[in-house]
């Protein structure tokens, strides 16, 4: 990612003002509750953002981005959250797989994939987890048999977010079963419309079918779709996960801060019990911590210090913030028996319940809480490996 060493505060302020003005003119109406309709509306929103130069803000201009800094990109995220405008639809492409494509992609791969990824013409998903390989990702069993002109891919992925809306998937596959398990994995860019790919959506507790099972049956993947070295996919996988953990915390923080302010306003207007008042204080402390961590995350991203065990700290803090905040909101709904808060206030009871339920996933996606804590203990604090 392009990130000049430091950006003039006046330049950032001017950028913030232009984002605010644009969002005031263009922010979309509230999104439909129905998942399919919402996805359609989000795709349209992505296109509008792209046409107006608000997608790929910190991507290099030679690959279709705006060539600005991460600080610029975060400003647009903050202003979008304030305006109640959603993020671009293709989050996995932009923020999870995209950074790895930019870091390890060949010139031809970047020419082929970057522009459609940014424009939203092609959407990406991340095929890492398998039924028996989540926390222990290196034991994955999806196999890619190496042939002269490419690979033949067979296996199953699970929990693949937005797979049924995706055109491409970043797949980790075992290309050499005889090497130690971390060393026989390759990172393949797989066409989701190729013969042999089957996607089955899974409905989550929120009622949305956001993630899926993906089956690969003798899917042919051309050699040109190998990202990075053959059998060297583990390093790329760690790069992707580092950006997922740290980058999502950076972006989501802005939205959590807006939800926090809305909640606080509602408590001021409607009142609450002492338990909720104490909880909102705790949420304030947790979000302040997340905000401080985000300044460090910007510095780390600027200095290309991702991946690092510090990504796990950001991820843990995000999960705490998310669950704490929406837990408080849910308790507030409970203390008012929901109705007063859904009448004449900025709070939406159904949305709070959904946010609360979705927040439960924050300690699982991108690597579970226990695994992140183990990374912190062993790699950051230097404690002996757990037996
Ligand atoms: C909303 C959501 C979206 C997701 N999207 C994607 C996606 O797009 N692409 C993708 O590839 N994956 C995705 N995932 C999957 C996610 O990365 C995995 O669920 C996660 O890594 C945990 O793996 P698992 O579910 O197999 O649980 P398991 O690894 O089976 O773990 C089960 C429990 O055991 C604990 N545990 C396991 N091993 C240890 C250990 N050694 N020490 C201590 N505790 C341990 C875990 O912490 C967890 O609590 C998504 C998950 C969710 C919830």
Structure notes:
The chain is α+β, with helices and mostly antiparallel strands and 387 residues long. It has three domains: 81 residues, Orthogonal Bundle (Butyryl-Coa Dehydrogenase, subunit A, domain 1), CATH 1.10.540.10; 108 residues, Butyryl-CoA Dehydrogenase, subunit A, domain 2 (Beta Barrel); 146 residues, Up-down Bundle (Butyryl-CoA Dehydrogenase, subunit A, domain 3), CATH 1.20.140.10. Strands 1-4-5-8 form a four-stranded mixed sheet. Helix 3 runs parallel beside helix 6, helix 7 runs antiparallel to helix 8 and helix 8 runs antiparallel to helix 11. The chain is built from eleven helices and eight strands. The protein is globular and about 70 Å long. GO terms for molecular function: flavin adenine dinucleotide binding; oxidoreductase activity, acting on the CH-CH group of donors.
Q: What are the secondary-structure elements, in order, as H or E?
A: HHHHHEEEEEEEEHHHHHH
Give the uncertain stretches in residue-range form. Answer: none
Largest sheet: spatial strand order: 1-4-5-8
In this structure, how is the largest beta sheet organized? 4 strands, mixed
Strand segment tally: 8
Quick one: CATH superfamily of the largest domain?
Butyryl-CoA Dehydrogenase, subunit A, domain 3
What is the CA-CA span between the terminal residues? 38 Å
- Gyration radius over CA: 21 Å
Structural class: alpha+beta
Strand content: 5-15%
**Overall number of domains:** 3
Q: How many individual helices?
A: 11
Keywords: FAD, Flavoprotein, Oxidoreductase
Domain Acyl-CoA oxidase/dehydrogenase middle: 125-219
Protein name: Acyl-CoA dehydrogenase
Family: Belongs to the acyl-CoA dehydrogenase family.
């Amino acid at each position: 990612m392009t990130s000049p060493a430091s950006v003039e505060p006046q330049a950032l302020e001017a950028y913030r003002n232009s984002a605010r003005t644009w969002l005031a003119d263009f922010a979309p109406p509230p999104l439909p509750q129905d998942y399919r309709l919402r996805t359609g509306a989000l795709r349209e929103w992505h296109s509008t953002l792209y046409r107006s130069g608000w997608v790929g803000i910190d991507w290099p201009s030679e690959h279709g981005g705006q060539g600005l800094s991460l600080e610029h990109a975060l400003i647009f995220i903050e202003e979008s959250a304030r305006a109640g405008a959603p993020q671009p639809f293709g989050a996995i492409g932009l923020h999870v797989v995209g950074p790895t494509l930019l870091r390890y992609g060949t010139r031809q791969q970047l020419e082929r994939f970057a522009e459609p990824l940014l424009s939203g013409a092609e959407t990406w998903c991340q095929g890492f987890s398998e039924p028996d390989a989540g926390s222990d990702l290196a034991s994955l069993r999806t196999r890619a048999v190496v042939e002269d002109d490419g690979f033949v891919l067979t296996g199953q992925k699970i929990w693949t977010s937005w797979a049924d809306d995706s055109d491409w998937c970043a797949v980790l596959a075992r290309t050499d079963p005889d090497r130690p398990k971390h060393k026989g994995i390759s990172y393949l860019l797989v066409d989701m419309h190729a013969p042999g790919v089957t996607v089955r959506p899974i409905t989550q507790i929120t009622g949305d079918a956001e993630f899926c099972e993906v089956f690969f049956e003798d899917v042919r993947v051309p050699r040109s779709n190998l990202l990075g070295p053959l059998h060297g996919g583990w390093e790329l996988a760690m790069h992707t996960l580092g950006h997922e953990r740290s980058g999502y915390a950076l972006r989501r923080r802005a939205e959590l801060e807006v939800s926090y302010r809305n909640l606080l306003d509602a408590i001021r207007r409607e009142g609450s019990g002492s338990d909720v008042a104490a909880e909102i204080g705790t949420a304030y402390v947790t979000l302040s911590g997340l905000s401080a961590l985000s300044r460090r995350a910007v510095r780390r991203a600027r200095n290309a210090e991702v991946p690092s065990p510090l990504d796990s700290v950001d991820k843990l803090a995000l999960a705490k913030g998310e669950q704490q905040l929406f837990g408080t909101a849910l308790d507030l709904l409970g203390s008012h028996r929901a109705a007063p808060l859904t009448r004449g206030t900025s709070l939406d009871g159904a949305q709070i319940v959904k946010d609360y339920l979705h927040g439960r996933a924050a300690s699982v996606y991108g690597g579970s809480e226990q695994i992140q804590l183990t990374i912190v203990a062993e790699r950051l604090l230097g404690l002996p490996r757990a037996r």
